Amino acid sequence: MIKCLESRKWLGERLMEKMSFDFCGITFDWIGDDLGAVLGGNKTVFGISDVRLSGADIEEQTLSRQVGSGISNGFKFVKKVQTPRKLEIFRDNGKILAVTVFEKKGGGIRVYTRVKNLTDKKITLENVSAFTLGAFGAECPRKELYLYRFFNSHHTECQPKRLSFDDLGLFNADHRTYKRIFGVNAGSWTCKEELPQAIIENAKTGEFLMFQIESCGAWYWEIGDSGKSCYLTLSGGNREHTQWRKKLGAGKSYITPSVGICLGRSLNDLLANMTKYRRSVSEFSKRFSDVAVFNEYMHFSWDSPDEKRTERMLPIVKKAGADYYVIDCGWHDEEDGDKIYPYVGKWKESKRRFPHGVRHMTDLIRSNGMKAGLWIEPEIVGKLSGVEYPEEGYISEGGERVLAANRYFLDFRCPEVRIKMSEAISRMVYEYGADYIKIDCNQDSGAGTEKRSDSPGDGLEKTTGAFWKWLKEERKKYPQVLFESCASGGQRMDWKSLSVSPMISTSDQVLYNRYPYIVGNIFSAVLPEQAGFWSYPYCSLSFLNIITESEENPTPHETVMNMVNSILGRLHLASDLSKLPESMFDLVKEGVAYGKSLAQFREKAVPFLPFGFTSFGEQVVSVGLKKGKRLVLAVWNLGLACEMEVPLCGLKVKEIEVGYPSCLPVAYEVTQTGIAFKFEEMQVFVLDIQLK
Questions:
Q1: For a FRET experiment, which of 130, 204, 291, 537 has its CA 20 to 30 Å from that of 15?
Q2: Does the CA dihedral 301-328-311-315 come out positive or negative?
Q3: Are 144 and 137 in contact (CB under 8 A)?
């Protein structure tokens, strides 16, 4: 576990007392006058958090590196305060008091740093790292140190890539280099290019470390050379990369975004620990965990729902087993679906699409034994909507409102914005009868706002914080309403946002045979009980001017794959189910029922990746959920493989049942190391396995 040498008080009486203490696998060691955090017993040249001030000396030869500031190197240890579940380390340099807090949570630790201005003058922060791990990997060649980066974008969410530090340019040399490996985001879409998390693997020792930055705005991480070893520093925004500066008046304080850190002896062990950590710090209710949702957007209504189409689909969806029927974008406004987005912002019902009113439709949904859902995108207002807010209600840079795709971004610090959007939610619940509200975000606001801010990055921190605070309050007002979080699929899967979201959209992927590559990785980023996956058994690509053979003649395989894509998470059923033959509709009903039956299991289970992470183009994908002696394992044969063994990583099988689909044969044999399959072409299934 943790070992630490506590040295001396730097003021007053000198105390040369050594003591050791346990705390979650990280060693705290004295380097000069300061405490540094190390992994594996290696010495460090950096403290546990780095602070930069405008005008202060930076001892690094390049300002890009976010370590080695003169301010931080001047910190002296003051004291530590420790309980079995919490450690606080106080450091001081006469101008700033820095307190780094470590909290034991689930399978890992949460870390953040708060800094206080001790002077009688205003100071300007340019970076405050939540945590800096000053040294690791000295005993390991850089070719055996690996980094997993989680690349993320529209339709290609959560795609980890494993490359050695050597391949990434951080190779062993006789001299310390200035090469950095770093990840960064500036903007309200926190995951538009990459998730704010990564894994470091020491292949020589078999040890893994995973971190996540819990920020709903800017974030930054950096790995660099500290001599024979490497360092890792984690923060929110900074001046150099995200236009972040923060002014602190005399006696004022600032608290960084928190970071989560977990260790593991294997990839599955690591992900299990991170899953337990996330559950321990989550804030969302589990009361809706056993429900299935039908959302008519995907492969059915798209942006143009209408009364007749919805009426026709209701009894079919109920028969399939759905508990909620969601009308997505287009229940509002009168414009055609292909041009509606610049007009949104009034959030009033469309009389053109719903001549009898949206309330008539939601009442009809309830009369069919389901609850009703509606979509909203509250953070923007279309330029052509006719809706106006005071200027303080808009995110602005350069003295002008930020405009993207003819849409403005709203600043939820503005009382009128909060009032109007709260009125919209109230109208959706009480006037239109929504039992489910899908909160979407289809645009990135950019680096931030200059209004009432010390910098654009400071503005982004304030505006995103204000939005999530408002949304949290709205959820409390309507505990009976299920709120889904979406951002063009999974463009906002940072843990700060996820921690309050009982259901999230993982992707807007429209091709069912591409979705397994997302499902196979997603539980490394999202809890199973909140991960929403689309399932569209009747897959129409006519919106792309593509008519497929399966559209004319749907196959059981297509139906089964769509259901398996969604069974391990929260099912978002979609598409025109009325066009399925009865035998395939029965496969849908069976899949919905089986997925719902996993609800309580899913809430306690941890991810199991037989092959590790998957990548687009792999022939066979497999991912499972494990709880105690039960393993629910999904397998997709997406290529031409005839035979394949899925390894069980040391687990031993007692009994196997085909969880889904029960009517189609699965040829398998238990081996000493796993389960061997003889595949029919493109076969997909879920096994329910009892372990010894």
A1: 130
A2: positive
A3: no
What is the Cα–Cα distance from 570 to 92, expressed in whole angstroms?
48
Q: Which amino acid is present at 167? A: D
Q: Which two tokens stand for residue 570?
A: 């929260």
Question: For residue 383, with 0-12 CB atoms within 10 Å meaning exposed, 13-18 middle and 19 or more buried, which class applies?
Answer: middle
The identity of residue 483, as a single letter, is F
How far apart are alpha carbons 460 and 411 in whole angstroms? 9
* Structural contact between residues 296 and 325, judged by C-beta atoms closer than 8 angstroms: yes
Distance CA 137, CA 397 (A): 43
For 332-341, write each residue's pLDDT tens digit.
999 999 899 9
| Cα(165)–Cα(337) distance, integer angstroms | 47
Contact in structure between 263 and 108 (CB atoms under 8 Å): yes
Cα angle for residues 505, 603, 156 (degrees, 5° grid): 30
Regarding pTM above 0.70, the answer is: yes
Maximum Cα–Cα distance across the chain: 85
For residue 652, how many other CB atoms are within 10 A of its CB?
10
Closest CA to 39 of 236, 207, 290, 260: 207
Cα(418)–Cα(544) distance, rounded to whole angstroms? 38
H-type helices in 372-508, by residue range? 415-426, 456-477, 495-498
Euclidean distance between CA atoms 117 and 249, whole angstroms: 7
> Is there a contact between 638 and 611 (Cβ–Cβ < 8 Å)?
no
Q: Is the pLDDT of residue 138 over 90?
A: no
pLDDT at 505: 97
Exposed/middle/buried for residue 419 (C-beta within 10 Å: 0-12, 13-18, 19+): exposed
| C-alpha torsion sign, points 143, 148, 153, 156 | positive
- CB burial of 221-234 (b: ≥16 within 10 Å; e: otherwise) equals bbbbbbeebbbbbb
